Amino acid sequence: MARKNAIIDAALVVVGEVGIAGLSMRVVAAQAGIPLAAVGYYFTGKDDLINAAFERHVQRETARVTRAITRMGDSPGPADLADRLTDFVVTGLTAARHQLLAEYEFTIEAVRRPVLAEASAAWQAILGAQLQAVVESLGSPRPKADARLILSVLAGLEIDHLSTPVEVAQAQMISDVLHRLLSVLALTWTPGQQDGRNGS
């Protein structure tokens, strides 16, 4: 199992560095530092490896989102959520950059691969549900719509900064945008009141 995990991790690195087009069993074997035959033992081909790599990516990113949200304080508010989301985006663009690059490679590839598209849609639903629960707890009368808006802004910030290094100024700009977004949304929120509507 350890060797199989190493192969999947290597595949994610390759996808993040050279894209899915550059992924091959041989390249992954070299990245993992194992014989090519070992990759063939665990995976039937490139498609199988891509699906496994995406599944691993979903597991990691879901855990990363959960950690970001659960770090909110005892009395969280819109500003606290903005801080957590800023950390999430900046970390994705720096320490977890190859994971983020891989994510958008998978997103594009999902257009051509129905299985990947289904998995991607399910993952987006999980992320949306997590964020929806948070904004609902903060008093949003339309948590589903607000969560969609926030996720769209997060994706835009990630894409805008994928090709350039994120320095202090860029991180501050990301923070400013998210604080502005959450402060505007919060104008319609009623803290402490959850009316049960999911706001489509």
From TrEMBL:
Residue ranges occupied by any HTH tetR-type domain in the UniProt entry: 1-61
Family annotation (Pfam families): TetR_C_31, TetR_N
GO molecular-function terms, A-Z: DNA-binding transcription factor activity; transcription cis-regulatory region binding
SUPFAM superfamilies: Homeodomain-like, Tetracyclin repressor-like, C-terminal domain
Gene3D superfamilies in UniProt: Tetracycline Repressor, domain 2 (1.10.357.10)
Keywords, alphabetical: DNA-binding
PANTHER family xrefs: HTH-TYPE TRANSCRIPTIONAL REGULATOR RUTR (PTHR30055), TRANSCRIPTIONAL REGULATORY PROTEIN (PROBABLY DEOR-FAMILY)-RELATED (PTHR30055:SF231)
Protein name per the record: HTH tetR-type domain-containing protein
